[in-house]
Amino acid sequence: MAFTDFSAALPAPAHPPANPGYGKRCAPDQCPRGEADFVHLRTREAAIAAYIDRLPEGAAIGYKALAANIADYGQQACGKALNFLSDAGHLRRVKEHLRLEDNSFRWVTHTYFSRTSRDDAWWTAFVGRLHGVDLTELERRKKAAEAARAHNVPAPDVPVRAEPVQPAATPTPAPAFASAPVEPAATPAPAPAPAPAPQRPAPSEAYRILARLGRTEPRMTLSARECAALESLAAEWLARGATPDHLVRSLTAGLPQPLRSPGAIARTRLENKMPPEPFHAPAHVNLAVMVCMTCDVADNVKPLIRGVCLDCREEMAAYDAAEDAGVVIDRVPDTFLAVPAQVNVARRADECRAMAGFKARPIPQQMHAPLGQARAE
Description:
Elements: E1 23-26, H1 43-53, H2 63-69, H3 75-87, E2 91-99, E3 105-113, H4 120-128, H5 135-151, H6 205-211, H7 213-216, H8 224-239, H9 244-252, H10 262-272, E4 284-291, E5 304-305, E6 308-309, H11 310-324, H12 345-355, H13 371-376
Parallel strand pairs: 1-3
Antiparallel strand pairs: 2-3, 2-4, 5-6
Helix pairs in contact: 1-3, 2-3, 6-8, 8-10
């Protein structure tokens, strides 16, 4: 087997999504994306903000998930960067208390991201508008809008066929000896251009699944008429959340022997084994509070200044002062490194004995020359 490129890099893994109902949320009324969105931030915060901006909704944007997918920064650097992004008005962490249809309650945490920097008044008003929001209706509208955009495909441009231009007929000069004018020869009418054959629409996914049943189970080979008759039932399966593999297994597993009518078997199974319609329990936001980016304390317990409480803000100030002084506080200890640093064990033991008040033992001298030197001599 021959390979043409031995240096091709493997594709980078996709950013992981958060648990259902959690993760990144986009704030409304943002400015269009541009090159100068994060020029007011430091290099680290600007790089992480640009990375978060391109993540889809529902992506995990905690400091651990960011550090696992951004090679340049560790967990502590990503955590501090999130605090500074909140201070700059791009991030807010909000806890929402949801009330479900069965009168059960649960807390979910969303991290709202805004490409446009916002002040505290805007974020406070935004969190206040979350009270009483029907999340189920919002999710339904979002899916309907995505489906409308997916099916709004412009019709392909069909080239217009130009009719061939017939050259003008040249009149034949009359002979001099003729007494009566000669009628010019009649030009035959051009043949009408053949009408273009109508293009057949592309088969749907449900039709393609039914047409490929014979590859999985030869006894379930369906004709074109049977596939067209059963297409609506198979499409309903897919609309209710069934995967193509699930649909194929339901139609091909446990077939009777002998099998005389695959179309009738397929119709019976599609009708009798139809999966239930997906049920989404309605969720209403009973309470929404803004929490600190670091310690998750709510704003009704401690005052927050640009999304960070006073205690965590003191840590941010100390972090800034340390960076300005050139102190590396994000250094990974040697014991956590993949390859620990080489340590002179004898010298380290002497240091420990000296700190304990014992005398340092003499370091044994090398008595024999190395084997390579002995052979050279």
